[in-house]
Amino acid sequence: MLASYRSIPATSAVRLSKPTSNLFRARTKRDAPGLDTSGLTGVLSVDPDARTADVAGMCTYEDLVAATLPYGLSPLVVPQLKTITLGGAVSGLGIESASFRNGLPHESVLEMDILTGAGDLLTASRTQHSDLFRAFPNSYGSLGYSTRLRIELEPVPPFVALRHIRFGSLPDMISAMERIIDTGGQGGTPVDYLDGVVFSPDESYLCVGRRTATPGPVSDYTGKDIYYQSIRHDSPGSNGAQGAVKDDRLTIHDYFWRWDTDWFWCSRAFGMQNPAVRRWWPRRYRRSSVYSKLVGLDQRFGVSDWVEKRNGRPARERVVQDVEVPVERACEFLEWFLATVPITPLWLCPLRLREPEGWPLYPMRPDHTYVNIGFWSSVPASATEGATNRMIEAEVSRLHGHKSLYSDSFYSREEFDALYGGETYNTVKKTYDPDSRLLDLYAKAVQRR
Predict the structure, then answer these.
(1) What's the domain count of the chain?
(2) What backbone phi and psi angles, to 5 degrees, belong to 439?
(3) Considering the entire predicted model, what is its pTM?
(4) Which of the residue ranges 221-225, 271-275, 431-435 would you say has the lowest mean pLDDT?
(5) Do residue 95 and residue 145 come from a single domain?
(6) Which end of the chain offers a freer environment for a tag, N or C, measured as fewer CB atoms within 10 Å?
(7) Quick one: CA torsion of 71, 74, 80, 81, rounded to 10 degrees?
(8) Quick check: 159 and 121 in contact, CB under 8 A?
């Protein structure tokens, strides 16, 4: 990797060259070669006694989980999609249903080796180059690239028992979420995993997971059955309160990847939820990385826009976003969104930071619950570029939330710096990338360079 860095002309921006990406923002085509990451894809070691793993920066969570589960261990947070890399989850943030108790993936990093924009390979931790360590999350490769990470692991038994609890009222659902987080349990039973899905204002679910070693039958959502559809059931409670509960069980492996097979619910765009199509779609291609490549081809050749135009319909605006809002404003955002943006379902994932110091490039209040709300679809485009995305940005800011930067953003430079630690970022950038060999974060996230 160092050799490829040195081969890139000083006048060219340094970027990664990698086979997969979970970013959803257009970028200008590059002329210079990217950094060679071919040697940074594996698990270097697993220490079952210390409950740690040393992992190369481009190692996917799919490979990491495969290496740790034989020891009865897993990362503290396993992001939802198999091809998300350790380096990507740390520099670009990640989240999953353990985040209400374990925070975000970068919070379980003990140390990491970083190739900086100055061409130095440094080990950063809470005590060594701590300014770089703390500014690295949400820097999206603009401060450097992680080549090795040492992370914490936690014990996991073989199975997860699930309860899908239906609510007919968004306030009741959010209140139940808060109770689970505050007590660490539900109905006297400890809760290890917690997320949810909103289908409409009067149909939402909390999906409560409890780890267990008790053997028994398990479901399989890699075949004809579809996970998100399995959540739904009848009988909401009276007056919108908690209603019926549906129980399920998965292996711990299948629980981690329950959303990957159908890319949450986005596989429907490819006909994958039509039984006739699903029957003939090879199982090995039922995964998010395949759908992501299909989306990339569509964007490259403009197939969807051509179809819309041919049928006399307006072009579509892509609305693919994850936002975090304080839990006390979550209902307000959900009600606004459902009344304003024609997209459902919505994914909910609560989180609390583990560390009281926080992380400067994605400032959130320590000891406070936030709710990640994910929505991934499109709406009819208007005359103003990104009109719906701009509305969402404004509403999230009004509610004192944040938006992840993996997709399209439209902030002004002033707004962006205020939201994403601009003062700290600029100081660290000058220290570790004084010649600006790496693109600036605003240039990447908003200007799409």
Answers:
(1) 2
(2) -60, 150
(3) 0.93
(4) 271-275
(5) yes
(6) C
(7) -50
(8) no
Distance, in Å, from the CA atom of 376 to the CA atom of 266, rounded to the nearest integer, reads 7
Locate 209 and state its tokens: 């997971």
Residue 377 neighbours by CB under 8 Å, 6+ apart: 266, 319, 320, 343
373 is a domain residue: no
Boundary residue ending a domain (206, 228, 259): 259
CA triple 386-388-393, angle to 5 deg: 90
Residue 126 CB coordination number (10 Å) = 13
Is there a domain that residue 297 lies in? no
pLDDT given for residue 325 in this prediction = 99
- Give the residue numbers spanning the domain of 100: 1-156
Q: Is 372 helix (H, G, I), strand (E, B) or coil?
A: strand
Measure Cα distances from 134 to 106, 149, 194, 355 in Å. 9, 14, 27, 11
Q: What is the 3-state secondary structure (H, E, C) of 138-194?
A: CCCCCCEEEEEEEEEEEECCCEEEEEEEEECCHHHHHHHHHHHHHHCEECCEECCEE
Do 14 and 119 fall into the same domain?
yes
- Per-residue pLDDT of 2-16, as tens digits, reads 666 666 767 667 767
